[in-house]
Amino acid sequence: MGLRVLKFGGTSVGDVEKVKNVAARLAEAVDAGDEVVAVVSAMGKTTDELVGLSKSITTKPSPRELDMLLTTGEQVTTALLAMALQEMGYEAVSLTGWQAGLKTESVHGNARILDIDAKRMIRHLGEGKIVIVAGFQGLSDTEDIATLGRGGSDTTAVAIGAALKADRCEIYTDVDGVYTTDPRYVKGARKLSTISYDEMLELANLGAGVLHPRAVEFAKNFNIPLEVRSSFTNDTGTIIEEVASMEQNLVVRGLAFESNVTKITISGLPNEITTLPSLFSSLASNGINVDIIIQSTSQRNTTSISFSIETAALELTLDVLRRLEVKLPYENIFYESELAKVSIVGSGMISNPGVAAQMFEVLADHDVEIKMVSTSEIKVSTIVPEDKMIYAIETLHEQFQLDERTPVNQ
Amino acid sequence: MGLRVLKFGGTSVGDVEKVKNVAARLAEAVDAGDEVVAVVSAMGKTTDELVGLSKSITTKPSPRELDMLLTTGEQVTTALLAMALQEMGYEAVSLTGWQAGLKTESVHGNARILDIDAKRMIRHLGEGKIVIVAGFQGLSDTEDIATLGRGGSDTTAVAIGAALKADRCEIYTDVDGVYTTDPRYVKGARKLSTISYDEMLELANLGAGVLHPRAVEFAKNFNIPLEVRSSFTNDTGTIIEEVASMEQNLVVRGLAFESNVTKITISGLPNEITTLPSLFSSLASNGINVDIIIQSTSQRNTTSISFSIETAALELTLDVLRRLEVKLPYENIFYESELAKVSIVGSGMISNPGVAAQMFEVLADHDVEIKMVSTSEIKVSTIVPEDKMIYAIETLHEQFQLDERTPVNQ
After folding, report:
1. Rg, Å, chain B Cα set
2. Chain B residue with minimal CA distance to A15?
């Protein structure tokens, strides 16, 4: 049939029995006539155990040595999975990241993939073997082992899919697909059969947490169809591809939300060209992640700036701002915690200018006060009181008719 | 001062505290002005645990995949040791076997080192770093990870010593040196300050068990002085080098012994040129390790052959011989178990022809019956009753005055 890249995360290979289950799933794919590449993570708590070992030696391990330590976890899984397949009578070969040809930046802990030399994988596929690759790792141009950081195994799978021109890349995980919103909080949440890359990116960035944004971006750039599905069932998952053909009439595709948001307002800042860069580069260099930014209309020579952060970063942010006052005088700082972000996402919005207005109206009609607004072509985000977050999501889910239609393939 | 290669086995890096101790020892060497390369094994029971994982999947793991699995153990140790050194303020870098440039045969589980490309180690030493190399592993010319088999970490250390032209290679282990005989059995056993490669080879092969013969051979071929010493004390160990300068007048340097020996005699074999090769190639192809071989004077057209084996291989050996009868007819098979091998070793024997006779006389005088004899230039081995083994060793130890002198450096 075709060439498939299947990725299994840590919980999918949590113990020896689960490794055998993954082997059985790969064997099925081979029996169906497909060529198969599997990308695997470290088993269950292996990475935590290795981190624990390093912590008993140093609180600040060098990133290079930590990568050297942690990448053994994935290597163990690849060998065991190859053994399990061989025990079932299938030909299989395990490869570390560098054996699979993954070349990364010379950075540790968070390297990006620069290139894949797929010769060896192609050779083994040609020999009729199932190729099993250690996720999350590659080799830098200094020939050091480097890890890819969060979501690295997803990215490995997609990058290999691109390098091999795979027909599909399947991400097996502990959820069974992408939902209109988080089904743990909203009863009517419905699994989507398809979604576009851009919509998935907005949902991923907004905390939907199913797929790492880097993997989605990679898939988008190389136009590799992705499927997110469960490791523990045989149900079809959600396909992420360029045109969400099945449901293109749906203006709003999904709702994302996150709590623990704080809004900070600084008033009486000098209305100068250097104010914004000076403020936000100070915050960035202290590792503070700023989300929504709003600059108010200036009065005379001063301006007022509001931005949202994670509440966990509040103390640090106030500290940075106080130290900054010498360089960047201001009148006052106000902050408001116990807020949440509620967003609607959908590529249909591009040609549908009334959607943002409709969202504001719905929220206002239900007494949900909007503290901040930010919009992109396919997303509208609002900051609202935290205690109204779920109520707002439920209301929007209903108003945008997300629970009304059933996906074709369910 | 110089360039030192230090090797630490599994018990020396058995847990995090022991890894820190090893780091302290390496730091001392650096403080003394030496350039340092460390070769390490997997921590304590790691290898057993990994083998256990593979056994829960298959009883016959493919050797390639087993190597892929097991080599993660040494990699973990290298990373932790580098972290421990960095925590102490020393510069260190960990290298897998392939990163260190170890090239092996394309064999799994028991590969030999073919070559070492030491460029990268030399570069890191030039940067003032302690280089930490995973023992027991290398890369085959098919770019597969291969292990070196038993004693592989010793061999790695010596091979690196040769490639880097090290001044000395130090093997840290759980014994504190090479003794005239096993101190657990013979009270008067004395630690030798020096011993020659050939003497060490004979002692190693005869079961002294301190150093793997492959490592000793390697050291001999490249003339690298080896020191065997304890990981847990600061005592000087035993130096193995070409000329055992300190104790060259000692004719017999050490005594080796092993129990569980069986002698097999086959009588009435055809006295033909093909008899010996046919017999011993059948035994070898069944994995039976034959030690001493004696061919008796032939009578008419038949001959009689005796050889010794480990008693554990007796059943298999008898089985092979019975099946062989079709091709190689014989009259009778006799065997005698509960025997032991007792050997004297010393390079001084070469110029001292009476030593073997002296040994036989001592044993006869003490009613120890000699069942078989085998000699080399620097060794005389005898097969004696197992229940007289320790008595024979004690007697010989005394007669050859091994417990009389004290090494210079003790």
Report:
1. 24
2. B53
How many Cα atoms are found within 13 Å in the side-chain-facing hemisphere of B156? 37
For residue range B118-146, what is the model confidence (pLDDT) as tens digits? 999 999 999 999 999 999 999 999 999 99
For residue A305, give both structure tokens. Answer: 């700036």
Strands of the A379-385 sheet, one edge to the other = A293-295, A302-310, A254-270, A332-345, A379-385, A372-376
Q: In which order are the strands placed within the sheet that holds B254-270?
A: B290-295, B302-310, B254-270, B332-345, B379-385, B372-376
Q: What is the CATH number of the domain that holds A337?
A: 3.30.2130.10
Q: Do A153 and A284 belong to one domain?
A: no
Percent residues over pLDDT 90 in chain B:
61
B57:A99 CB<8 A: no
Of B56, B78, B86, the CB nearest to A58: B86
* Mean pLDDT to the nearest integer, B382-401: 93
Report the candidate in B6, B266, B285 with the shortest Cα–Cα distance to residue B153: B6
B20 in reach of chain A (CB within 8 A): yes
Residue B297's pLDDT is 65
Check whether residue B268 and residue B389 sit in a common domain: yes
Nearest to A143 among B50, B60, B99 (CB): B99
25-84 of B, contacting A, C-beta below 8 A = 50, 53-54, 56-58, 60-62, 64-66, 68-69, 71-72, 75-76, 78-80, 82-84
A57–B16: do the CB atoms touch at under 8 Å?
yes
Residue of B nearest to A139 (CA): B99
Domain-ending residue, one of B245, B273, B292: B245
- Are both B275 and B350 inside the same structural domain? yes
- The alpha carbon dihedral of B112, B117, B123, B125 has a sign of positive
Of the three residues B190, B223, B245, the one that is the final residue of a domain is B245
Residue B316 sits in the same domain as residue B349:
yes
The C-alpha of A281 sits at a distance from chain B's nearest C-alpha, in angstroms, of: 32
List the CATH number of the domain containing B153: 3.40.1160.10
Interface predicted TM-score of the whole assembly (ipTM), two decimals: 0.78
Domain co-membership, B200 together with B62: yes
Whether A274 is in a domain gets the answer: yes
Q: Is the pLDDT of residue A407 over 50?
A: no
Of A75, A83, A93, the CB nearest to B72: A75
Q: What is the pTM of this model?
A: 0.80
B328 lies in the same domain as B239? no
Is B408 within the bounds of a domain?
Answer: no
Which of A19, A59, A64, A68 should one mutate to test binding to chain B, selecting the residue with the greatest count of B CBs within 10 A? A68
Closest chain B residue to A91, measured at CA:
B62
In chain B, what residues touch A121 (CB-CB under 8 Å)?
none
Q: Please check whether residue B97 lies inside any domain of the structure.
A: yes
CB-based contact A66 B57, cutoff 8 Å: no
Domain encompassing residue B357? 255-399
Residues B40 and B161 placed together within one structural domain of the fold: yes
Q: Do A62 and B82 touch (CB under 8 A)?
A: yes
Tell me the shortest Cα–Cα distance from B7 to chain A, in angstroms.
20
Beta strands in B247-391 (DSSP E): 254-270, 290-295, 302-310, 332-345, 372-376, 379-385
Q: How confident is the model over A200-220, as pLDDT tens digits?
A: 888 865 555 678 888 888 899
> What's the number of domains chain A is made of?
2
Task: Confirm whether A270 is domain-assigned.
Answer: yes
Half-sphere exposure of B101 (CA within 13 A, CB side): 15
Co-location of A14 and A104 in the same domain? yes
The secondary structure element, H or E, covering residue B49 is: helix B46-55
Q: Is the pLDDT of residue A59 over 80?
A: yes
Q: Nearest C-alpha of chain B: how many angstroms from A315?
A: 30
Q: Residue A297 — pLDDT band, cuts 50, 70, 90?
A: low
Q: Are A345 and A203 in contact (CB under 8 A)?
A: yes
Tell how strand A113-116 and strand A130-134 pair up.
Answer: unpaired
pLDDT per position as a tens digit, B227-274: 999 988 889 999 998 865 545 556 888 898 999 999 999 998 888 888
Segment A7-25, tens digit of pLDDT: 998 889 999 999 999 999 9
* Residue B406 pLDDT grade (very low, low, confident, very high; cuts 50, 70, 90): very low
